Amino acid sequence: MTQEQIRHPHFAKVYARFAPEMDKAGAAKHRAELLAGLSGRVIEVGAGTGLNFRHYPATVTGVVAVEPEPFLRDLAVKAAKDAPVPVEVVDGTAGALPSEDGEFDAVVASLMLCSVRDLPGALAEMRRVLRPGGELRFYEHVRSENAVAGSLQRALDVLWPHVAGGCHTSRDIATAIADAAFEMEECRRFKFRPSIFAAPVAPHIIGVARRPAH
Ligand SMILES: C[S@@+](CC[C@H](N)C(=O)[O-])C[C@H]1O[C@@H](n2cnc3c(N)ncnc32)[C@H](O)[C@@H]1O
Predict the structure, then answer these.
(1) I need a labelling partner for 159 at 20 to 30 A (CA). Which of 106, 124, 142, 169 fits?
(2) Would you give the DSSP letter of residue 200?
(3) What is the pLDDT of residues 9-24, one digit of tens each?
(4) Full-model pTM
(5) CB within 6 Å of ligand 1 — which residues?
(6) CA-to-CA distance for 30 and 87, rounded, in angstroms?
(7) pLDDT single digits (tens) 163-177
(8) Cα(44)–Cα(53) distance, rounded to whole angstroms?
């Protein structure tokens, strides 16, 4: 199978520049919440520059961080050196994770399910690599619950993915997770708008879904 190529050189540079500002504005706290209490072997998909790495608790024995975009992956390799737990950064995509069935105790998806081309396919892969009973930790921006705002997001999605590295503003990611045969355990909705430009992606969810044990 030919691996999907993810190359967003301009967006990657802009993201690498501004993501730390988003962290200062509050995203770092969300990342800590996302990863709190994790243990065992973890795969983080679409790890970007590795901004989550410093938040992994010591109970995590190792992280495989998958990042397909070369510029971001190089930065993630550097971030892995300072991580408090062992992190191995690898090339790969959500649609074909470089891992065995049931290999991990947890999968982490942060601000990336908006960007995958095939959302059900990515979630099916995440479920495949999780052991039965393993957990999916997610932190994502999503479609607004307000009908008018949701329609505006859908209209914006004609353009937005072309300037934002494939990101879509209007995905209903909580529903997609449930549709992918995960059991939703916790899903907190909140608004996070670190700058005026982030208004279309202000609605967020953070939480835990589980691959059923049987
Ligand atoms: C907005 S960035 C978020 C990066 C990081 N997860 C974070 O929380 O800062 C979106 C990330 O998704 C990655 N991505 C896009 N399509 C992907 C795919 N099909 N498989 C894996 N990662 C993908 C991008 O390369 C990028 O690193």
Answers:
(1) 124
(2) G
(3) 888 999 999 999 999 9
(4) 0.96
(5) 4, 6, 15, 19, 45-48, 51-52, 66-69, 72, 93-95, 110-112, 115-116, 166
(6) 20
(7) 898 999 999 999 999
(8) 9
